[in-house]
Amino acid sequence: MAIYLLTSPLLGRLFYPFHYREQIEAAGEKYRVDPLLIAALIKVESGFRREAVSSQGARGLMQIMPETAEWVAGKIGYRDFSPELLFQPEINIELGTYYLADLLQLFQGNRVVALAAYNGGRGKVGRWLEEGVWDGRLENLEQIPYRETRDFVYRVLQAYARYRQYYGNR
Q1: Catalytic residue among 45, 51, 84, 130
Q2: Per-residue pLDDT tens for 113-160?
Q3: Which domains does the chain have, with CATH numbers?
């Protein structure tokens, strides 16, 4: 059954849904981020639960910290930002996608490093790279000091492979 699941697009799409597709594709186009990567990140972060809240206080589909969301909102010109807006899928997806795009740009398009920074913080990941703690390569993921961040990067990349498999031709 597990082998069939991996090759069956119908079953695969049940386990890897593409909810909020219109909003994800619009944000992906606007900020030049692969919508399938956004969907994979959402799948891992919240399981597409719009009301998700982490133990650290991250909110919504893309599990954005209110402080990060406020910074992003200022960058893209949102007025009257409130953390409660993070439960609105369109806003959460736009803010989270902008943030991911910003990280991708900061780390020269390196998805692995950008995803690590999305989870572990851009400052920490930048220090790991500068200090030689981690070289930023997928094959050296075990060098990342935080298990949560290592696991997050791995899980998002695994989900991304599945999204490309099941939705690659959209």
Answers
A1: 45
A2: 999 999 999 999 999 999 999 999 999 999 999 999 999 999 999 999
A3: 8-165 (1.10.530.10)
pLDDT digits (tens, 9 = 90+) for 66-91: 999 999 999 999 889 999 999 999 99
First to last CA, the chain: 25
Secondary structure class of 53 (helix, strand, coil): strand
DSSP 96-145: HHHHHHHHHHHTTT-HHHHHHHHHH-HHHHHHHHHTTS--S-GGGGGGSS
- How far apart, in whole angstroms, are the C-alpha atoms of residue 165 and residue 7? 9
Taking the CA of residue 45 as centre, how many other CA atoms within 13 Å lie in the half-sphere pointing to its CB?
Answer: 29
| Catalytic (active site) residue 45 | yes
